[in-house]
Structure prediction request, 553 residues.
Amino acid sequence: MQMRLKGFISAGWTRALPVCALAVLVASAVLAQDVVVYRFSPTHGGIAPGGIQMPAAMYWRYTASPAPQNSASPAIVGNTIYYACRDRFYALDAESGRVIWRYPTDQPLNAQFRTTPAVADGIIYVGATDGNLYALSASTGKYLWAFRTQGAVLSPPTVVNDVVYFGSADGRVYAVNAKTGEPVWRGGFRTLDAVNGAVAVADDMVYFISADQTLYAAAATTGLLLWRMRLPGTLYALSPVVADRNVYVVSSNVLTVLQARSGRQLWARTLPDDIVTEPVAGNSMVYVLTRDGRVWAFDNTGKLLWSTKEPVFTNQPVAPPTLAGNVLIIGTTRGGIYALDASNGTILWKYLLQSSSSTPERPTFTDITAPPVVANGTLYVVSDDGSLTTFRADAPDSIPPTITELEPTRGIAISGAPPIRFRALISDDGSGIKTDTIQFLLDDKPVKYEFDLAKGEISYLWDTKEASASPSGQEGGATTVRPLADGRHTVKVIAEDWRGNRTEYTWTFIVDNTLRKRTTTQQRVQPGVPGMPGVPGGAGGGRGGPRRGDEGY
Prediction:
């Protein structure tokens, strides 16, 4: 199987080549778009501080230990990325992915970091499954203090006015002094079940959702209850969003909007399928994703502006989307990344992120379980194989897709009797395969192929229908089945990536109809979906070699 190496690997991080010139340009720029809290602001609206151009290509990738269901997006301050992954916390260089420091420095933590960190005044705050909220020095990673609760801390901390707000699986929401870790609310705010979502803070009020199916609003300074609302149905989104002086919550297939100060319902919209993540809300706009793969855009009065008529994604998002300028970015399970024009839902770019441990012989998938982050023109994507992968519009990608034949193999002699399955692998680890450019030709004639994104596999089945003819006068549906003609036949596959790099791959095989037809059991290839993401790669967590997953997305 053919492979190509587009990057190099060192100490867990990989870097695209050639990238030196790009690094100099980035280093000379002022990186001013800091991301210091979950979903970019204390209100958790999901709107990035800057935009990003599309299509993008992989820039670098850092891989730590596998972390299933890692929901921790990175924080970014200046030229440093703060990344929580499993039992360690990392500070990485934003230009290269190089490790600056890690905590703990010796043995891993006897627990897992599972929250997006918050950063304020040189201190990092991050929750862990051992029940602690940890405070670390942003410059050195030195342990400063910890606040212990009686349950896992899966709630991303929010820092406002020198107070850290966060929930715990012990059913309480806590407010602690950001400098000392001393409690501000004595005993915390008690609910009837775990509080694993983020606490939103706006206008001296805090908002949070408990697994007891209730949305709470409390005074930020005292923790006194101001109002609450029972949420019916199933809760897929555990964090409220505050925007335009409204609170946005979802349960089952209903988007509900409340007046932030009073809790009075302003409007609600019932959609055809369940809403699977928190919305993006702000700038008088709201975007939601539904289980059927569609995207919906409303204004802040509830008026529907647009929705995608066809599914955008196949596998489900489990983390909310991000709005960066006019680009809506969605990550899904099985590694799907989608970039949509926020004004109309047009797809601008698609990419399939493969596991860092994937190989051509043993393809594996990875899930994107943390919200995408955009800052300084870079997209940061966390996947549960332990990788933090970055993409930029100006990242170099001059290598075309890789295509490898699977069957019939090059030069083999076979019987021409149907059925004959033709298969090849297509991959691109830079900007991804642009699927609407794929062509499959048999003896220079286009055929109707299927493309399985899960494996990066294109296939065509020459069966009895293709080989048959029904002369007039034959009754009962009788047909004459003719084999492929004796002699040499040519298969050609053509594909481009999102940068326009093009590959035409041709191989030949021989038909000899004196040979006995082999009977083999072929694995069924699921029909491809037009316009779905391309297939990237990344040997050892990098950008080398074709990669394929286990399922489509």
User: Anything to note?
Assistant: The CA atoms of residues 452 and 525 lie 6 Å apart. The domain at 402-541 is CATH 2.60.40.1220 (Immunoglobulin-like). The chain is about 0% helix and 40% strand.
